[in-house]
Amino acid sequence: MMRFTRRGTLKVGLGAVAGTSLLGSTSLRAEIPVNEATPPSYKVEDGASLRILRPAKFVQGDETVFLANSKKFEEQYGVPVKVDSESWEDLRPKTAVAASIGSGPDVILAWSDDPHQFPGATMDLTDLADYLGKKYGGWWPLAEKYGKDKDGRWIALPIGASGGRVVYRKSWVNEAGFDGIPGDLDGFLNLCRALKKSGHPPGFALGNAVGDGNAWTSWALWSHGGAVSDENDNVIINSKETIEALKYAKELYSTFIPGTLAWLDPSNNKAFLAGEISLTQNGISVYYAAKTSQDEGVRQLAEDIFHARMPIGPLGRPGERALVINTMVLNSTKFPNAAREYVRFMMEREQYDPWLQASIGYWGHPLKAYDASEIWTADPKHEPYKHVMADALWDGYRGSLGESSAAVLADYVVVQMFASVCAGQMTPEEAAKEAERRAKRYYRT
Question: Under a CB-based contact definition with an 8 Å cutoff, are residues 318 and 394 in contact?
Answer without folding.
Answer: no
